[in-house]
Design a protein that fits this description.
about 280 residues; 6-stranded mixed β-sheet
Length: about 280
């Protein structure tokens, strides 16, 4: 399987340094690094089952948007958008409702992974259609977990759910599915995602936001319909732009966090030395 990794803040060997973990957490949230680890486990399993006809694109930002698609799997059987989660515990997935179950009581989760996964699939499908890419089947959104500590009670969920004990079977079934598009089409779709072609003509002003690829964008608002929201851009005069306050590629907020963590490490080291001196 061909793997194209666009994960930010990674080294050439795919590893992530301690400093970049902090930067990534501050920029993308606390679930960023655990989700990356879960992604890698899932990719390792899928890679063993799928051959060279398949291409996996990881953490790619769609053109002219801030949308990061975790995994886009493209192959002769079709296109899947996969959201790999690291969460654990007991959850219920009913239609588009997603939440925890404790003592028989259901509580909505702060982030609805069903709606988020479904939104990602719809946005990729819209993107490809606006690029005039023809594919027989729609983009299939999949919520996948490699954590055996996650248990999901599902009742007609809006996306396909693949748990840890079924990831291998899921990949194997893809390899055996009859093709609906050629290998050339797989390469064409991959190139259009990674290296999109410039538009041939200027988009008419009367065109709606959904029809304008330059305006595709959405925030993960699970309470709203999964439609790409228009991205409003304003030109800022050069004189009004503030000089960058980054130092060594880090913002003041990131430097403060690193400083606090360094102070904690120093305090622990001092306590350790004092313990040796007084109790040795």
């Amino acid at each position: 399987m061909r793997i194209i990794d666009k994960t930010p803040l990674t080294n050439e060997d795919g590893s992530i340094s301690f400093i970049n973990r902090i930067k990534g957490t501050l920029q993308y949230g606390f679930s960023w690094y655990p989700d990356l680890q879960a992604q890698q486990k899932a990719i390792d399993i899928i890679d063993k089952q799928l051959g060279k006809k398949f291409t996996l694109i990881r953490n790619h930002v769609l053109e002219n948007s801030k949308i990061i698609v975790p995994i886009t799997l493209i192959g002769p059987p079709g296109i899947q958008v996969i959201f790999v989660t690291h969460v654990q515990g007991s959850y219920r997935a009913k239609n588009d409702a997603w939440g925890t179950v404790s003592g028989g009581n259901f509580k909505d989760a702060s982030i609805n992974l069903l709606k988020r996964t479904n939104q990602l699939g719809k946005v990729v499908e819209i993107y490809l259609k606006k690029k005039s890419i023809q594919f027989p089947k729609g983009v299939e959104p999949i919520l996948l977990s490699v954590n055996p500590a996650l248990h999901i009670s599902s009742v007609r969920p809006i996306v396909r759910i693949v748990l840890s004990d079924a990831v291998d079977r899921f990949a194997s079934s893809l390899a055996q599915e009859p093709p609906v598009m050629s290998v050339e089409a797989v390469h064409e779709i991959t190139e259009e995602i990674i290296n999109p072609r410039p538009p041939k003509a200027k988009v008419p002003e009367s065109q709606s936001p959904e029809e304008n690829m330059g305006e595709i964008d959405f925030a993960f608002d699970e309470s709203a319909p999964a439609k790409p929201a228009p991205q409003i851009r304003r030109k800022v005069p050069v004189s009004a732009q503030k000089p960058s306050s980054d130092y060594l590629g880090m913002t003041p907020k990131q430097l403060v966090v690193i400083g606090v963590m360094g102070l904690i490490v120093i305090c622990l080291l001092v306590l350790f030395i004092l313990g040796i001196l007084f109790f040795a």
